[in-house]
């Protein structure tokens, strides 16, 4: 099964996450198919950047987002049918 989830990067106590498309059997930080964006929770404001068109494409192909990534997609207006006008 293809999933969309976060892969952790960054230093100790300084997390940085890439939002990736991967096979569910791969490790969290292992091999991935495509990188869709990133989430940086550290700093004055948390920074989130997602390639909305590619995210909508993978959702239309049946990729299942994790709960956290699904929340990010909802916040950014990404769905299976495409990107909502903001």
TrEMBL record:
A molecular function GO annotation: structural constituent of ribosome
Gene3D superfamilies: 3.30.1320.10
Annotated Gene Ontology cellular component terms: cytoplasm; small ribosomal subunit
Pfam families cross-referenced by the UniProt entry: Ribosomal_S16
Keyword annotations of the record: Ribonucleoprotein, Ribosomal protein
PANTHER family membership: 30S RIBOSOMAL PROTEIN S16, SMALL RIBOSOMAL SUBUNIT PROTEIN BS16M
Family, as annotated: Belongs to the bacterial ribosomal protein bS16 family.
Name of the featured protein: Small ribosomal subunit protein bS16
Species per Swiss-Prot/TrEMBL record: Acidithiobacillus marinus
């Amino acid at each position: 099964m293809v999933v969309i989830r976060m892969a952790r990067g960054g230093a100790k106590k300084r997390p940085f996450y890439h939002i990736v498309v991967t096979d569910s059997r791969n490790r969290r930080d292992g091999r991935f198919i495509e990188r869709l964006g990133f989430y940086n929770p550290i700093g004055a404001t948390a920074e989130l950047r997602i390639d909305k068109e590619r995210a909508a494409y993978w959702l239309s192909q049946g990729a299942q987002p994790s709960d956290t990534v699904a929340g990010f997609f909802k916040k950014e207006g990404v769905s299976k049918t495409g990107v909502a006008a903001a």
